[in-house]
Specification:
362 residues; alpha/beta; 2 domains
Length: 362
């Protein structure tokens, strides 16, 4: 069977609800197997129905336990669940360190909870694209809820959770160090903040610090069109709002105030409240029109990532044609040329081709 026929059969089986086909599809996506892009393209028309939640936060915050409890709660309501856990790579095999059975203990044996660990493999761009594609596979399969769990709380997570409709950031109770760390940018991506292990000492203080930081962040970004919480409606001030009301125009939708929820994941405490809050945010996105806006931004970013990958591949070929990177660097070391000139020379034939195509279209 050729690759094209194999992919057609794989898509047919995946759409028919066969979990083995889903697993094979995600493996092809993660490994960037030949033809995987055509496979994802075929699945795209069947996507758009799943609600996607991103779970991130500092190591040790209890993300895996909470995700397990969330999946269990969704299943009790009769909903199907897909979980993608982005794990740190093994330095020896390149595979994900943590195993499926360990991570989803209470859902082992439930075929309606599909869990998949994906290895970071040290490549942010590739991982981000692979995660997005895996979400599409789960969506096309028919999963009602898709949870993306990421490790750590840094730039990787800020990029990866762009695949999610709603983002929950977990913060364990502590001395305040974990909350201070959120200032590095992750505060802006959180729609919901979860103080997990809320039965431990320091939980109340952590909740209070989060409230103060969220309030401060809202004050700082009130006039910025960040596109995340929809908080640019106040930019024109109260006077414009009054004029709008007098003229009978529809008011801008209110912005979403990031919620703070306390949970004790190991006991399942607070999980129902968390899920209710996540659904409140999803309903807010739908009613405000921001859900479509987020989808537009997501697809625009996906196109950019794919084009970067493709252009990068073209450039690698051109570099090899010119003798390889070592040859180019040698000229720079010998002061015969410089990095900017080398980059221009490598780009020249590609730019010429683009210009030629542009002239043809005119």
């Amino acid at each position: 069977m050729n690759a094209e026929a194999d992919h057609a059969e794989l898509v047919e089986e995946l759409l028919a609800g066969k979990h083995r086909a889903l697993a094979r599809t995600i493996t092809k996506i993660e490994n960037r197997a030949p033809g995987y892009r055509n496979l994802v393209s075929e699945l795209h028309k069947h996507t758009g129905d799943a609600e996607v939640v991103g779970i991130t936060g500092s190591p040790g915050a209890g993300k895996s336990t909470l995700v397990d409890k969330m999946a269990n709660f969704y299943r009790e309501r009769g909903e199907t669940v897909g979980v993608i856990a982005v794990d740190p790579s093994s330095p020896f095999t390149g595979g994900a360190v943590l195993g499926d059975r360990i991570r989803m203990a209470s859902n082992v044996g439930d075929m309606e909870v599909f869990f998949r660990s994906m290895s970071a493999r040290g490549s942010l761009g590739g991982l981000s694209t692979a995660t997005t594609d895996a979400v599409k596979a789960l969506d096309a399969f028919g999963k009602d809820k898709i949870i993306i769990e990421t490790v750590g709380a840094g730039q990787n997570e800020i990029d990866i959770v762009k695949s999610a409709d709603t983002v929950a950031v977990l913060v364990p109770p502590g001395s305040g160090d974990d909350v201070q760390m959120l200032k590095a940018g992750i505060l802006e991506i959180g729609d919901v903040f979860v103080v997990n292990k809320a039965d431990l000492k320091g939980a109340d203080r952590t909740v209070q610090e989060l409230r103060e930081m969220v309030h401060m962040q809202q004050d700082n970004t009130a006039n910025l069109a960040t596109g995340h919480h929809g908080a640019d409606a106040l930019a024109d001030g109260d006077e414009d709002a009054e004029e709008s009301e007098k003229s009978g125009e529809d008011e801008e939708p209110e912005s979403w105030d990031p919620a703070i929820v306390e949970t004790v994941a190991k006991d399942g405490e607070g999980v129902e409240e968390l899920i209710d809050t996540l659904e409140d945010h999803y309903e807010y996105l739908q009613s405000s029109g921001l859900l479509e806006d987020k989808a537009r931004m997501r697809y625009a970013e996906e196109i950019r990532n794919l084009l970067r990958d493709d252009v990068g591949t073209l450039l690698e070929g051109e570099i090899e044609r010119r003798g390889g990177m070592d040859e180019l660097v040698s000229g720079i070391i010998d002061r015969e040329t410089d990095p900017y000139s080398v980059a221009d020379e490598v780009m020249d034939p590609i730019e010429d081709c683009v210009d030629e195509l542009g002239d043809r279209d005119e």
